[in-house]
Amino acid sequence: MIDSLYLAWRYIVFNRVKTITLVLCISLVSFLPFALKILLKESEQQLMSRATTTPLLVGAKGNALDLVMNSLYFSKEKPDFISMKAIEKIVDSYLALPIPLYTRFQAREYPIVGTSIDYFEFRQHSLAKGRTFAMLGECVIGADVATRLNLGVGDSILSSPENLFDLAGVYPLKMTITGVLNKTNSVDDKAVFVDLKTTWVIQGLGHGHQDVKTMSGPGAVLSRSEKLVTASAKIKQYAEINLDNLESFHFHGDSSIYPLTAIIAVPQDQKSATILRGRYLSEQKNQQIVRPKQVIEDLLSNIFQIKAFIDAVVLIVAIAMVLAIFLVFSLSFRLRQKEISTILHLGCSRFTVVQLIVAEILIIVLFSSALCYSALLVLQYFQGEIVHQLFIS
Amino acid sequence: MKRSNTYLARKAFLFSSLFLALSHVNAAEQSALDIYTVNYPLKFFAESIAGEHAKVTLPMPNDIDPAFWSPKAEDIAGLQQADMILLNGANYAKWLPKVSLPLFKLVNTSSEFRDAYIPLSEGVTHNHGAGGKHAHTGTAFTTWLDFSLAEKQAKAVFKALSRKNPKLNADFVQNFIPLQAALLAMDSELTEISAALQGQPLIGSHPVYQYLKNRYQLNLQSVHWEPEEAPSAEQWDGLKKILETHPAKWMVWEGQPVAETVAALEALGLKSIVFNPVANAPETGDFLTIMQENISALKAVSSTQ
Known about the structure:
The complex is a heterodimer. In chain A, strands 4, 5, 6, 7, 8, 9 and 10 form a seven-stranded mixed sheet that branches. Chain A has two domains: 2-46 and 299-392, no CATH class; 56-291, no CATH class. Chain A is an alpha+beta fold. Chain A is built from eleven helices and 17 strands. Chain A starts with a helix and ends with a helix. Chain B has two domains: 21-118 and 136-184, Nitrogenase molybdenum iron protein domain (Rossmann fold); 189-303, Nitrogenase molybdenum iron protein domain (Rossmann fold), CATH 3.40.50. Chain B contains nine helices and twelve strands. At the A-B interface, helix 4, strand 3, helix 5, strand 13 and strand 14 of A face helix 1, helix 3 and strand 6 of B. Strand 13 of chain A pairs parallel with strand 6 of chain B, so a sheet runs across the interface.
């Protein structure tokens, strides 16, 4: 058998183009169904893990999937905004505890999640370093943000402008990092967490600036009376919140209409959840309450329907590929008739010829398996990132 | 099945930790609730109602106005760990929008009467940033000087405590009833005094008496003086200008004014009384005794009619 393997090996090395083509074809056909299975399993795991631990989500009426994907996975698709009144409504109901989410902004390529410190308790996140945000302008970063940007406690990170061409827009806010989360193996690793009010400062609803009562200079003050000073846009606004200027930060207007993207509602029990859902169904025209688990299950069922279709396509391709390979081998043997007859004339048995052919096929299959397995290992290593990019972002 | 069990276990753990205080079976029943308040009246209400079942903390030093406290991050750590944080509402505690507190634990004791908040017109308008033109105006916040509102705030504290620990409801009711009675009695007494005052003009030393004025229909105009500081010439001029159209004979102070100021006011025909809003913890006495002193001082004014 060793001799047969040696001869088969020499033949394969000599016909390397044909061999490589065969190995690639077999590898690809084997890789596809396994890869699909791995990715779907990972996507199911990623999607369901957060959906099952998030009992209810309140958001603007519209696409429930967008609401869930943005609130649970901070996807770039933004749902319509709701106001802080929605929080008051839940608080006043005593049926659930609300955790606000405002995921409109980004710092570098990472989402800024405006929330309350309850979020960490709710997700059972702990800090690897530092403390949670306590003051306006402070932030806590996920483990991957810390690693990839090489940031730690005491460093700062800038919010990214929403639109580079909006010259009259809000200045980026320089946020101080007060804590780094332990690795959670979720999208929270790739997020920057701030207090909800800090996101409103990023939006420009709150700001800090020099004291208008004492400021002077040409064009700085438009009018001044005993009770009213009208300042111009020339006023100096602060782009960083620190102990020196914290006092000057303030919010304008009615904070009850300030925006949110969603609210995680944590009901006291099943009965409270049912009552709360009923109230939204009957009373709320502009808001919806969804069960993320149900929304994700619906999404997964659609994905699995697509998977069944893809599986069928892959099966047909595989059959075609097997037939093609069979054709390649049979044509190859016809071309090798002289070679086979020489082997027989040399005194070898027909069994030896069969051994040679089997050895060639074995070597090709082994190489294909090794290549397929290696590709699957690479895929498994990057599966989290790939799934996040393909299905979540 | 394994996955389902894991999910249920995680869910159970999550809810048990989140509803530590709201749930019916928890450790809070054995240990005192850790309650923080933003001013002394709320601390007094919480201590009176919760009794031994709570440790109530007013986190700022005694010598500052709690509304204008500037906490540091380390001060906020205690608040973040509290079981309950009692807020006054009405934009009281100017530091609140600048700190991160757990929403789960915040109780706005004046949310029931938001419509009764008194807006302040004084402000600064400026035009910049995404918000466009806007004014720095606010809301009067010494709500508890209207004792009918103080009673509602005490009731809100009572309700919050009962929700937090329903098994202690009987104790809370027992403690709340006398507090409620005392507050309503003071409300009645002040209503009678206001009738006796017959619209007598008064000067407030500081713009903190809006709710007192509103509820008890006091004919009061305020200046912006500090009891421990001698007023400037500009402030005296401002007062004289007010007196031209508002011939007051009494000035109501937040705290005991310095003797020189009292003497100078008497030269203008103005006598001084103290109506202490007692926003921060007093050195002696408590909320009820100090308010009773305040009421007695106003009663003395009415008796001079």
